[in-house]
Amino acid sequence: MSFPICWRCLSNASARSLRQTARGSRPPTGVLALAFSTTPYVQFPLSPKKSSGVKVIHKKGSKSLVIKKGKRSDDNRVRRPAPGERKALRKRIVLSNVNAFEVEGMQDVNAENMYDGRLRGHVLGLPGPIVDQLRAAGAFKPSQAWGMFRRPGMLIRRETLEIGKIVADMHAENESKSTLRTILVGERGSGKSMLLLQAMTMAILNSWTVINLPEAQDITIGHTPYTPLASSSPINYVQPGYYAHLLQQISVANPHLADLPLSQEPSKMTIPVPIPPNISLAHFASLGASDREIAHPIFNLLVTELLSPGRPPVFFGLDGLAHAMQPATGYTAPHMTPIHPHNLEILKWYFEFLSGKKTLPNGGIIMAATSQSNAPKVPALDVALSQLEGPIESPAGQAVPSKERIPFVKYDEGVFKTLIGGEKAIEIRRLEGLSKEETRGLLEYWARSGMLRERVTEGFLGEKWALSGGGVVGELERAVVRMRV
What we know:
485 residues, two-stranded antiparallel ribbon, globular
């Protein structure tokens, strides 16, 4: 049987009909689709991606991020710093540099040459035992450039000779036991902390008792435990840990206390632990350093012993005066108000001697130093120091009057009561730049130590003296020693 249509024509017609059917099933082109939809897309779920079985080969030198899930494995190669390790590293003081040249013919400071005017402008070395006592007393600062030289030394400047003459007069037997109460002021880098160190050195050389508060910020910042003193009115606060550390400093910085016995037996109500008879003052201070619960009463009794007749003169030092004069500390009272610095027992004790409320029967020096690099803004302290100093002379030769109170500024009356309200005025010592003779001696010492590689000529001396603001020690050190082009 034959068909009227051949198979080829029938197959072509079937393909055309299928294409027309597919075009008819499409949606009209004029219909707009929504840009988004919140309906779950379940009509045509995506099939999971199948692995092709082809491994990706990274090129040589390329890096890929590999994140491991689960518990992190301990890596023995990384060691976290122990508690207090970073603080110890930050406050580390290096007093010697074996790579520096040793200055030949360098004279050591002693009790006889500390006020010799012929040594003005010379750098004198500190003996080893004196260095250990000064380190124990906290006289050195991490910001000072001790680690650049072979051994510690100090420049004899005009203010050093003045303090040395006062110490020598107090140490003389035929002189009356007088007391020097002074505050060191000056611009940043003028050498206030260094002069405080020199005064402590002179006190140690004459076998005085040195009690130094290295940083007032450590007392007021709020990092030490404190407790209210029940017997005080108004309530003052005691820092047992700081007293224990201070007693340890006193016992190490004053070796002559080992030869001074305790003259009076303490009452058991004050110190509950048994005290051996005929105990030395050094051992007595060590007892308070080992037990912070009894550190405060032992410190009070130790100061009473040091001020008894027949004892050597004393030196009380404080650095960072502005932190002790600010309106509030980092500590809070039970009713959640900040504690004033003068309500801390250790600062109250110091300011009683600085203001003249308490005297030193055997004579001595009460010295405080201000700081311009790390100090809070205390308007009352600025006005009080300006009024104590009086009019000063500007670099242009004009007299600058003292500061007066501004009516719309709130001042702390406790600062004026401490500094100005005493019977005797506190002496203000302003440190300025070095003279050209003193600057020459310092530059020559740096050159002999290997820190200065240029010849100290008149032109070089005048250039560095002018660039340092007229011989400011800190700026001079920064321009000559620390800065290398």
